[in-house]
Write a structure and sequence with these properties.
Number of helices: 12
Helix content: 55-70%
Order of helices and strands: HHHHHHHHHHHH
Structural class: mainly alpha
Length: 216
């Protein structure tokens, strides 16, 4: 990318990181196990997911929601076109990670589409949990051979976390080691399916076990 946008400072990155930790602690803990070179890409991705997911909390009308989703769609298109990114810290973070080719705009646009579809259907079960996990896994490894398992486990994890179901979901083969920082938090569905709300220490221990064994 050719423009001279100043990179985010360490303080700005820390602020985004802290936001993700506050609103999406499960994924944030998993991301701590990623190689440092990939960690910002995961945080930028999860920060975008949060911005998209919280549209439903800000507005209820389809038209107003469409405006917000289109704002992100346009922002991503501008990043792809190598235009100066919008003055929003998540846009700036995404710009840096796209420039480094750790994130792909096409994959992020598909994430916008998925969240908008769920918003319009008023059905959180349609939120693109599997796609979000697939994009995170792709940051860490190109071909990993665990795509089908992500499609199966991600919705089960999300449903138990929302308390939509008590079903644990599918039992799957151990995840490949390279992508575990993108999916290790799926192991927490055990607690959620039991109606338990694990504290931060319990979450860390469970995710660490998933990192060591690949069992989610």
């Amino acid at each position: 990318m050719s423009n001279e946008t100043s990179p985010l400072s360490k303080t700005q990155w820390k602020a985004i990181d802290a936001r993700v930790k506050r609103v999406d602690e499960d994924r944030w803990i998993s991301s701590r196990f990623a190689p440092e070179i990939y960690r910002n890409a995961l945080i930028a991705l999860y920060a975008l997911a949060y911005e998209l997911a919280r549209v439903r909390l800000a507005v209820t009308e389809d038209t107003l929601g469409a405006i917000r989703f289109q704002w992100w769609r346009d922002a991503l298109s501008e990043i792809e076109a190598e235009k100066t990114p919008r003055a929003h810290d998540v846009c700036l973070a995404l710009y840096e990670e796209v420039a480094c080719q750790r994130l792909k705009v096409g994959a992020l646009q598909k994430l916008v589409d998925g969240y908008q579809a769920a918003f319009e259907a008023e059905d959180r079960a349609r939120e693109p949990e599997a796609w979000l996990a697939a994009v995170a896994a792709s940051v860490l490894a190109g071909a990993h051979g665990w795509g089908t398992e992500i499609q199966e486990v991600a919705p089960a994890y999300a449903a138990t976390r929302r308390s939509d179901t008590k079903a644990f979901g599918p039992h799957v083969a151990p995840a490949p080691k390279p992508i575990r920082p993108a999916i290790a938090h799926f192991r927490l569905r055990k607690f959620y399916s039991e109606g338990r709300d694990p504290n931060a220490v319990t979450k860390r221990l469970s995710i660490m076990k998933a990192m060591n064994t690949g069992q989610v």
